[in-house]
Amino acid sequence: MASTAFRKIDIDAYDEEVLIESELYDPYPYDPATALSAAKQKQSAVRSSLSKGDTAGALTAVLEDAPYGPDVEEAKMVTLQTLFNILSSTKATDIPPIVKSLSTDAQDSLMKYIYKGMAMPGWGDVSGSVLLTWHEKLTEVAGTGCIVRVMTDRKTV
Amino acid sequence: MSAPEVFSLAQVPLTAHAFNADRQQVAVSLNSNDAQIYTRSGSDWNLTETLSEHDKLITSIDWAPNTNRIVTASQDRNAYVWQQVQDPNTGKLIWKPSLVLLRINRAATYVRWSPLEDKFAVASGARAIAICSFDPENDWWVSKLLKKPIRSTVLSIDWHPNNVLLAAGSADMKARVFSAYIKDVDKRPSPTIWGEKLPFNTICGEYSSPSGGWVHSVAFSPSGDVLAFASHDSAITIVYPAAPAVHQNTITSVRPYEYGPNGNVTKVSTTGVDGKLVVWSVNPVGSVTSKLGGMHLR
């Protein structure tokens, strides 16, 4: 039988004009270790903000410079956990003013995490109804444009 | 706002259209290989001419108002310039095509005449923009390709009023500003805020769409000092090329500086930690923001 090994050749490697994933967006500026320690630092900062009842501040802190990209999985999971702590400890009536106080960038970022949470059913202690409530309130404030931006963005959290 | 005028030209999709100078004629492509010219009579449009030369779908049409020339671009990788001449036999005016040597190997997607109408730019799926100018010696249109650093199909272009700079939006999620300076056609352009020395294919700016969407549409402001583009990530980005160099640090306060006749703010002033006081013109932003709902502006 003829050899089929040629089928496994990565022909893109020989194409000078091939477009690779990393060219599509700016890479996350920090290495995995730095990102992880930053995420853990934020986690403790968020705990103290939450104990003071400052949910909006806690949320802004997490969503700012959120880790993205393929190399920082651990930091992403820590951030996700931190964020879910905030989401599930907020009363439904408090959500609209908090969402309104966020910048558009932070709103987009929050939407990314909500979708990520929905894609991981049963992970951690977050419930679907909490995510759906946040999603509803966030869409009311930020509009469907926010969802489109999250769907197109390759800087996944 | 007065009600829009609605004309039903055909029962098929229209892929492109361009009006002539007095807007009494319009060239449209009825999702086909032909471009049709309709002439207005009252509230009707009558088909007066059909331009057939392309053998694939026409993607874009532009009609130069002063020189009265039409350029069509098509998926057959060609562009034609149509010029009105007298038929030697009948004496009637006919549209005569001349082929343009585009040298692209993918569909042409978008075409626009330059402001002086001595050049036109053809965007294409070949990761290139063909800048075409007339070569009187050989009596045909020749092209020079803008290639680097375009990584994907170019979807839209817009000329800067100085006839040299060209903005392009592309499916690699970036909008770029290029120099399309052709030595034998253009006079040396005076410096703009996009740059001073502008040999062909100078990249004067490269801007990513914020959440990584195809850039579907680009446009310069009438002054040419501001660039705006719309992208598939539900965002409009407005670029002030001079802006990053203005404030070197945090902006501490913003105040209205000057009001227009209708009471709108036309200029604002800002101060920064860098010790600078800056007066900005907000016109280009305001005219856009007043029409936006849930859009995202940077």
Automatic annotation (TrEMBL), chain A:
Pfam families the record matches: P16-Arc (PF04699)
Keyword check for Lyase: no
An example Gene Ontology CC term for this record: Arp2/3 protein complex
Protein's cellular compartments: Cytoplasm, Cytoskeleton
InterPro entries per UniProt: ARPC5, ARPC5_sf
Any Gene Ontology biological process: regulation of actin filament polymerization
Location, primary (coarse class): cytoplasm
Keywords: Cytoplasm, Cytoskeleton
Function per UniProt: Functions as component of the Arp2/3 complex which is involved in regulation of actin polymerization and together with an activating nucleation-promoting factor (NPF) mediates the formation of branched actin networks. Arp2/3 complex plays a critical role in the control of cell morphogenesis via the modulation of cell polarity development. Functions as a component of the Arp2/3 complex which is involved in regulation of actin polymerization and together with an activating nucleation-promoting factor (NPF) mediates the formation of branched actin networks.
PANTHER family from the UniProt entry: ARP2/3 COMPLEX 16 KD SUBUNIT P16-ARC (PTHR12644)
Family the UniProt entry places it in: Belongs to the ARPC5 family.
Protein name: Actin-related protein 2/3 complex subunit 5
Taxonomic classification: Eukaryota, Fungi, Dikarya, Basidiomycota, Agaricomycotina
UniProtKB/TrEMBL annotation, chain B:
Organism domain of life: Eukaryota
Compartments, as annotated in UniProt: Cytoplasm, Cytoskeleton
GO MF assignments: actin filament binding
WD repeats (start-end): 51-83
Keywords: Actin-binding, Cytoplasm, Cytoskeleton, Repeat, WD repeat
Gene Ontology biological process terms in this record: Arp2/3 complex-mediated actin nucleation
Primary localization: cytoplasm
GO CC term (a single one): Arp2/3 protein complex
PANTHER family per the UniProt record, alphabetical: ACTIN-RELATED PROTEIN 2/3 COMPLEX SUBUNIT 1 (PTHR10709), ACTIN-RELATED PROTEIN 2_3 COMPLEX SUBUNIT (PTHR10709:SF2)
Family: Belongs to the WD repeat ARPC1 family.
Protein name as catalogued: Arp2/3 complex 41 kDa subunit
Lineage of the species this protein comes from: Eukaryota, Fungi, Dikarya, Basidiomycota, Agaricomycotina
